[in-house]
Amino acid sequence: MAYTAKDYGSLIGMGGFSETLLKNHFTLYQGYVTNTNKLMDLLAAMLGEGKVGSLQYAELKRRMGFEFNGMRLHEYYFGNLGGTRALGRAGKLGKKLAEDFGSYEDWERDFKGTGMMRGIGWAILYQDNVIGKLFNQWINEHETGHPAGCIPVLAMDVFEHAFITDYGLKRADYIEAFFNNINWGVVEGRLKQAAYAGSS
Ligand SMILES: [Fe+2]
Question: Nearest to residue 114, comparing CAs of 157, 74, 163, 167?
Fold first, then answer.
């Protein structure tokens, strides 16, 4: 079954993100969906043709990490935008962030600091599915650094295409705009309380 690009057109008009930037970003996202489908088809065909041992198969297999994560991370990213309200500190997520980072403010400082790291990639708040802990992680490009068994809770794209149209090299200003538009309801909904609490 092929992947289908989701429509995030409802994000157009949110503060701090121009229509040009968002439309270009949607187009890039659609490219990852197209390439993920193409790669899956090509690899299936090569399997059928007995080419599993070939260099071409190995390189296409490697490529899947980039294209698939490029697709899926953009879905987390666009999906956690479009919000208009600040995080309620007394809610489930607010409490959990304070518990795991000492305070909400410490979490925010760490997340923004992760996003400011030099390089292209992602800052992601993950929840470890085994013990339930929240932590911020840097992902290099789309595929390097994902912690196994963890669920992305909040994803922030820090490839230059995510901000350079509107902010030039001022990544910190883009990160502020991102924070102003986080859909905390969606983010909180990604928390899985049942996944931990002593499970083995
Ligand atoms: Fe992107």
Answer: 157
Amino acid of residue 54: S
The separation between CA 41 and the C-alpha centre of its own chain, rounded to angstroms, equals 25
CA of 1 to the centre of ligand 1 (A): 24
CB neighbourhood size of 83 (10 A): 17
Question: Which of 91, 93, 89, 35 lies closest to 67 in space, CA to CA?
Answer: 35
196 pLDDT more than 60: no
Residue 43 pLDDT: 98
Please state the pTM of the whole predicted model. 0.95
* 141 Cα: distance to centroid of ligand 1 (angstroms): 10
pLDDT at 195: 53
User: How far is Cα 136 from Cα 107, in angstroms, rounded to an integer?
Assistant: 8
